[in-house]
Amino acid sequence: MNPASTARTAVGTSLLEDFSLEMTGKDIPKLEEARDTIPQGTRINVTFLGNEDLEMRLAAARAVKRLGFVPVPHISARRLGSRDDFERFLAGLHADGTSDNVFLIGGDPAHPEGPYDDALSLIDTGLLQEYGVQHVGITGYPEGHPEIDGDTLWSALRDKHLALTAQPLEGGVITQFGFDVDPVLTWVEGVRGRGIGLPIRIGVPGPAGVRRLMSYAARFGVGTSASVVRKYGFSITNLMGTAGPDRFLRDLAAAYDPARHGELKIHFYTFGGLKATSDWAARFRKESLA
């Protein structure tokens, strides 16, 4: 292996040294099934879905901790019906010892169910530190958002960064998933150019069926033109097939320049399941080091 290839391999495997995963409140059995293939200490985000209740979310965070991983509960601003709901969730996490890390999102509802419209409004309450939160994750959208214009997205990212710095709270960004490395790294350079030095986790779909990936992409406004999906490594003419992020991660490793892009890591959206994703990550890392 020549020196340039060796360097790319080192960068590529470093991206996977501390990847994070995602699960729902219903996925405790799936996490237990996958536990032996997930490195201890891995950060596991627990989503905040409308069809789950407080106890399910708290139980999932407890299970993540019990199995030796780091729980990162999501808090959906627009799904909180009141300040009491927000405090009740934070208090439950704090009592369970799972409140160190949270991930804040605006959420899917078109209109807030309570007093909070976005992640910034949750930060501004000052409640996070009161209940033991130390690290706050926020969202990034390299390919934009289907319902929010670009200037508003950049302003929101800047304002959340400033609010976290003022608290002060540690922060990090997790991006929406995509299929094309170029807009992702262009966006990262835009983040750094705006003086935002937060660590960034690049959202990547774990291995999953092509039909499912296309469905999620359409829902989140991710580019899915024929040329983009071919570049990613699957064909829209074979919707029964499966696809993994092998080519995306290799392209990312080849283009990643820590001096320009800062600290980057990987966050897997486990559309195809926790075990399939963790098995794939272990295999990819082993093959890359071979």
Q: Briefly, what is this?
A:
This protein is an alpha/beta fold and 290 residues long.
- Structural class designation: alpha/beta
Beta-strand segment tally: 10
**Total of helices:** 13
First-residue to last-residue Cα separation: 11 Å
Strand content: 15-25%
Radius of gyration: 19 Å
Calculate the mean pLDDT score and round it.
87
Question: Largest sheet at a glance?
Answer: 8 strands, parallel
Described by the principal axes of the CA atoms, the overall outline is globular
Helix content class: 40-55%
Strand order of the largest sheet: 1-2-3-4-5-6-7-10
> Which sequence of SSEs, written as H and E, runs from N to C?
HEHEHEHEHHEHEHEEHHEHHEH
**Unreliably modeled segments:** 1-9
Description:
- Helix 1 (3-15) crosses helix 11 (246-255), helix 2 (28-34) runs parallel beside helix 13 and helix 3 runs parallel beside helix 4.
- By secondary structure, the protein is an alpha/beta fold.
- The protein has helices spanning 3-15, 28-34, 54-66, 83-96, 119-123, 127-130, 150-166, 181-193, 210-220, 226-232, 246-255, 258-261, 274-289; strands spanning 20-23, 43-46, 70-76, 101-105, 135-140, 170-175, 200-205, 208-209, 242-243, 264-269.
- The radius of gyration is 19 Å and the shape is globular.
- The strands form two sheets. Strands 1-2-3-4-5-6-7-10 form an eight-stranded parallel β-sheet. Strands 8-9 form a two-stranded antiparallel ribbon.
- It has 13 helices and ten strands.
- The longest helix is centred in the middle third of the chain and has 17 residues, at 150-166.
